[in-house]
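Example 9 (inverse folding). The structure is encoded as follows.
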């Protein structure tokens, strides 16, 4: 069984300074072709290795000698890291480690400042950009998902697949120069690297597509390498402990748990399962969901928003975003971003373990109202306030036990509630139901002769979600002025 532990990856977080220490391993053109070629090649290999992973600086005059003091001390650093005899000599054991396929992230102290950097949120998005041709796409998807869930199970983190290029963790299979300062090197050598938490490249994880990626024990096992790389994407450094997933070289793996005790302690030092963080922006709600379930439940529950039969139970503005509810699932589209967050409702609002039938937003109160059967929650800022309250608080008679859709119209200060073929009008300012309601929907909204699933008011129009479609309704002219597919609202 040789699933070898891949050691790859880089924790080169935000300080991407170009410099000799990051040059890719290359053979010098001036190598003499003599009987001594092999030691020369070893010396160059060692120099490149130490520049890449141990911050060895280029020699001032371009000469390379084994006796060069900083070279010797870097060899010792490397020997100490790997538990070899710290002789400073390029002995065969040392060269063997240097020739082992490994992660592209450096091992040394100089990079320590990047350690400890972490994501300020517990729900991270990921997306796979360029795929490898070594494996079917669905296999890559499931290996990547499994590799992330290794960390999700051990921490309070969870991962949501996104289909945008702005996900926190962008996964790419690339070769040689690929747009960052860390070109890959063809087969073997560096297998992959990842950037620590941060904006832009932060969290991004690159795999050298010159390698042979597999789901089994030949070539390099993508699941194992990806799990190691994602450790870096979450902020972990390399470990000296050969039992740890974060060990830098790809090694035979024992079966079972990928994570050592040390890996688990390190990820929890960064993302404690009981940590209660302050909120980070409008999607910071994810920090309170149940830590042990996230990794298990999440991936299986991801829903295809673009499937042709997608309908929504409720749609509402909430702050700067639009929320789309379907069953116990939620998509959040930020008004200013292409990125769509998604996942079980409980991942964003742990108190709400049910589906949502109707939802509306009252800008004047900066409050969203989420209705389930005869109860509703209020959401202010990014917090669900207190316990759910009965619909009768809004002036409904006791026989109203569920609502199909609700929408607030700023101009009139009214919230309209749609129930089967009737609707009610609530005066938000006076906090009473308007006189004369309920009325028939078809009388006041000509053209709408069916049960409404969801409604939202935007830019002077009401949009009624009915089945897989959306009607754009001009309520001054009292007519439908447009029809589109519901999931076009999620970019499909
Ligand atoms: Zn690594
Ligand atoms: Ca390589
Ligand atoms: Zn890269």
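The amino acid assigned to each position is listed next.
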């Amino acid at each position: 069984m040789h699933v070898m532990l891949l050691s790859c990856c880089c924790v080169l977080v935000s300080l991407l300074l170009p410099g000799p220490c990051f040059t890719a391993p290359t053979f010098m053109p001036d190598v003499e072709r003599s009987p001594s070629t092999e030691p020369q090649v070893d010396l160059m290999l060692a120099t490149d290795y130490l520049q890449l992973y141990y911050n060895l600086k280029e020699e001032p005059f371009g000469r390379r000698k084994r006796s060069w003091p900083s070279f010797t001390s870097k060899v010792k650093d490397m020997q100490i890291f790997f538990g070899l005899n710290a002789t400073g000599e390029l002995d065969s054991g040392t060269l063997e480690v240097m020739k082992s396929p490994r992660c592209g992230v450096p091992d040394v102290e100089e990079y320590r400042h990047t350690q400890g950097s972490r994501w300020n949120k517990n729900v991270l998005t990921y997306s796979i950009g360029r795929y490898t041709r070594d494996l079917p796409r669905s296999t890559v998807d499931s290996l990547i998902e499994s590799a992330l869930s290794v960390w999700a199970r051990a921490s309070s983190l969870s991962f949501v697949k996104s289909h945008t290029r702005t996900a926190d963790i962008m996964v790419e299979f690339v070769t040689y120069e690929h747009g960052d300062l860390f070109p890959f090197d063809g087969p073997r050598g560096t297998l992959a690297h990842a950037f620590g938490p941060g904006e832009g490249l932060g969290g991004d994880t690159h795999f050298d597509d010159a390698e042979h990626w597999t789901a089994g024990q030949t070539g390099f096992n993508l699941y194992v390498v990806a799990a190691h790389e994602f450790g870096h994407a979450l902020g972990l450094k390399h470990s000296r402990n050969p039992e740890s997933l974060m060990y830098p070289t790809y090694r035979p793996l024992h079966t079972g748990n990928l994570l050592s005790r040390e890996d688990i302690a390190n990820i929890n030092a960064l993302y404690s399962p009981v940590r209660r963080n302050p909120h980070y922006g409008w999607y910071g709600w994810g920090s309170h969901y149940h830590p042990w379930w996230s990794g298990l439940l999440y991936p299986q529950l991801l829903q295809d928003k673009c499937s042709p039969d997608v309908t929504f139970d409720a749609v509402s503005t909430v702050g700067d975003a639009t929320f789309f509810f379907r069953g116990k699932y939620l998509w959040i589209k930020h008004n200013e971003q292409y990125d769509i967050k998604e996942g079980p409702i409980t991942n964003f609002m742990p108190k709400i373990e049910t589906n949502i039938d109707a939802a509306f937003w009252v800008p004047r109160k900066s409050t969203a109202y989420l209705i389930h059967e005869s109860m509703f929650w209020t959401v202010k800022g990014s917090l669900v306030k207190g316990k759910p309250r009965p619909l009768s608080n809004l002036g409904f008679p006791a026989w109203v036990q569920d609502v199909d859709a609700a929408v607030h119209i700023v101009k009139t200060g009214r919230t309209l509630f749609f129930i089967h073929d009737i609707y009610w009008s609530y005066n938000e300012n006076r906090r009473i139901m308007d006189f004369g309601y309920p009325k028939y929907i078809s009388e006041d909204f000509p053209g709408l002769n069916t049960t409404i699933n969801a409604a939202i008011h935007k830019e002077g129009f009401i949009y009624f979600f009915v089945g897989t479609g959306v009607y754009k309704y001009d309520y001054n002219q009292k007519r439908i002025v447009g029809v589109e597919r519901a999931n076009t609202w999620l970019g499909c």
